[in-house]
Amino acid sequence: KKKREQLLGGIKKHDKVLTIGGVVGTVVEVKDAEVILKVDETSNTRITFTKSAISQVIPQDAPA
Q1: Rounded Cα–Cα distance for residues 16 and 26 (Å)
Q2: Residue 23, class by beta-carbon neighbours within 10 Å (0-12 exposed, 13-18 middle, 19+ buried)?
Q3: Which residues contact 17 (CB under 8 A, 6 or more apart)?
Q4: What does the alpha-carbon distance between residue 54 and residue 52 come to, in Å, rounded to a whole number?
Q5: What does the radius of gyration of the chain's CA atoms come to, in whole angstroms?
Q6: CB atoms < 10 A from the CB of 57, how many?
């Protein structure tokens, strides 16, 4: 539980994240209980998720 709180508290702009629904996106904005993710570069599609929907932060050096 403590690790989960650290994960959600440490989310910042430009982090690449995976949601519990399997959506991968880049953090554009972090609000109190919400995170806005850019999920498509070509159409600039953005989706708002609750922070609790974030499953993991994907390391920058991870293969695509």
Answers
A1: 4
A2: middle
A3: 11, 24, 25, 26, 27, 35, 37, 54, 55, 56, 57, 58
A4: 5
A5: 11
A6: 17
How far apart are the C-alpha atoms of 35 and 21, rounded to whole Å?
14
Residue 50 token pair: 């609750």
Segment 22-57, tens digit of pLDDT = 999 999 999 989 999 999 989 999 999 999 999 999
CA distance 52 to 64: 24
Tell me if 17 sits within 8 A of 23, measured CB to CB. Answer: no
Give the pLDDT of residue 62.
65
